[in-house]
Specification:
about 150 residues, alpha/beta, 5-stranded mixed sheet, 6 helices, about 45% helix, globular
Length: about 150
Amino acid sequence: MNLEYMEVAFKEAEKAFKRGEVPIGAVIVKNGKIIAKAFNNKEKKHCCIEHAEITAIKRASRKLKNWRLEDCDIYVTLEPCPMCASAIKQSRIKNVYSALKNSDINNIDIINRIFNADKVNPKVNFVNNLSVEKSTTLLQKFFSSRRK
């Protein structure tokens, strides 16, 4: 784990914020090198699956020319939703590092079940709450600006 990658994820989240998107960023790393980064883009793309994690996975897969992102780590500024957790597991990302847990108290139970090993995919290691204050502040700033 290297929190410098989390800072890059926060720069991606800031890009989302400036575009009126929920400020979530993701960075995928392999062998100490960033291979993909992305931010939420649901509003602009008019599509519910344009989450930072999904976009980063697509970019990393293109770069590696392989849908299997084995030995990769993903850094995200908010705990993944179940859809993103499933994509992370299906892509075989090894480790997930999250800045903040999701405010939905059921989310962690769901994604922990998704991240457990099954007959096809290995367990995904998950570390949460690595930058709580920074992520909370950014999300609160975004949502308070939307309510004005």
